[in-house]
Amino acid sequence: MTQGQDVRLSQFVEDFASTLVTAGVPRMPSRVFSALLVSDSGRLTAAELSERLQVSAAAVSGAIQYLETVHLVRRTREPGSRRDQYVVEHDVWYRATMDQDALLGRWVEQLDTGMALVGRDSEVGARLAETQEFFSFLREEMTHLIERWEQRKRLRSTAS
């Protein structure tokens, strides 16, 4: 990679991280995720991330903890090595979407509990019911989107 490409890739990492920040992902996890995403192998050590991003090891550690919690990266270790490597998988967004579906399911269940407490016919109950209906709609649509995505991937793999 040329120096110019290196600079443009570093700028992409910062720009994509900024986009993730606007979506609610904290700044340092956004930068770490972006750096992993554009690394050749999709895997880097904490030292490599620290060097690429010009940040402390502690900053990388905190970012990795967050990214592991939300299932955007996973920790692995090469046989015989004592250094952890952090990996972003090709299907990271698929997995994150599936996690989101499970979360929406829990919210739908919890909203049932809330409506039972306040009464479905109350103003609060109506607000909770609207919220629940929206989350249920999202889950249904997400199921269709996932099916279409899986179909698209199958078609793409048979075409190549």
Distance from first to last alpha carbon: 27 Å
Strand order in the sheet with the most strands: 1-3-2
- Backbone shape: elongated
Please give the largest β-sheet.
3 strands, antiparallel
Mean pLDDT: 93
The number of helices is 6
Give the strand tally: 3
Structural class: mainly alpha
Give me the Rg, rounded: 20 Å
Helix percentage range = over 70%
Spans of at least 5 consecutive residues whose pLDDT stays below 50 are none
Order of helices and strands: HHEHHEEHH
Structure notes:
The chain is mainly alpha-helical. 73% of the residues lie in helices and 7% in strands. The chain has 6 helices and 3 strands; from the N terminus they run ααβααββαα. It has helices at 3-22, 27-38, 46-53, 57-69, 92-118, 123-159, and strands spanning 43-45, 74-77, 84-87. A 3-stranded antiparallel β-sheet has the order 1-3-2. β2 and β3 form a beta hairpin. The longest helix is centred in the C-terminal third of the chain and has 37 residues, at 123-159. It is elongated.
Layout of helices and strands:
Blueprint: H1 3-22, H2 27-38, E1 43-45, H3 46-53, H4 57-69, E2 74-77, E3 84-87, H5 92-118, H6 123-159
Antiparallel strand pairs: 1-3, 2-3
Helix pairs in contact: 1-2, 2-4, 3-4, 5-6
